[in-house]
Amino acid sequence: MIAIGIDLGGTKIEAQIFDASWACIDARRVETPKSYTALVAAVVDQIAWADRLSGAGLPVGIAAAGLISPATGLAFTANLPAMNMPLPADIEAAVGRKITYINDCRALALSEAVFGAGRGKASVAGLILGTGVGGGLAINGALTPGISATGGEFGHIPAPAHLIKFHNLPVIACGCGRMGCFETLVSGPGLTRMARHFTGHDLSPKLLIAAKTTNAKAVLAWDVWCDLVAELLITLVFTMDPNVIVIGGGMAKIAGLVDDLSRALSRAQLAGFAIPELLIAQGGDASGARGAAYAAIQDRMHV
Ligand SMILES: [Zn+2]
Hints:
Blueprint: E1 3-8, E2 12-18, E3 24-31, H1 36-54, E4 60-64, E5 67-68, E6 75-76, H2 87-95, E7 100-103, H3 104-114, E8 123-129, E9 133-139, E10 142-143, H4 161-167, H5 183-186, H6 188-199, H7 205-211, H8 216-240, E11 244-248, H9 257-268, E12 277-280, H10 288-302
Parallel strand pairs: 1-4, 4-7, 8-11, 11-12
Antiparallel strand pairs: 1-2, 2-3, 5-6, 8-9, 9-10
Helix pairs in contact: 1-2, 3-10, 6-8, 8-9
């Protein structure tokens, strides 16, 4: 056994133990507590469980919702009861060793780049389209480093003015504190917002896709959503020009997504230039634990 990964989300905390071939040999899932003290205790208990099975001292990587400010060490997270609390430091103090703590979307991106759909590619952009929107950039199997921890917050790039204006889309306050972020329109709730805007009905993504067969307004809502996502994808292309873009999260399960987004991305790209291959993430939602565990090994090699 070589590393422990923990997926720390708003509803569950899953610990996974990995062997030398990166197979998950045991996993344990508990509910995410509602108070900060209980949250720290639950994570510490998961690490203690993994230590008992694996022998103490393996590198621990935690993939968690939200961000940790490198300047203060405090958490910025809407989904965990840890807002403005020094969560990584409190966990480290309790378990008595350093841990690697990374954003869950970045962990998923790293997992896909190393073990999943992007395996073997030199440069991989990961984009998670779920309840929230985020991701990460991986070069040669390592996440791009940064000073602020906000790299990968693709969902909080502003949505493009030309599409907003042409379709009279709502420019609303995002949960991050900014206005008009991509996330407000291209996340799962964002797609429902698009459905309401074009059809007048609060359709879930699933119902909107079903409605496309009979309802031209539903088709328009979907097409504009694809154009919006394509603008986010072309932003990644213009920034990084990756070999592939791996798409994960709940929206990645929509049938035909890659074809529709590839067409929209081709329209968004400069005339005559190629687009990267779009791939659907191979790992499940819990594969962030593997990405975090892998990052923990990388951290230990660099110490
Ligand atoms: Zn935002």
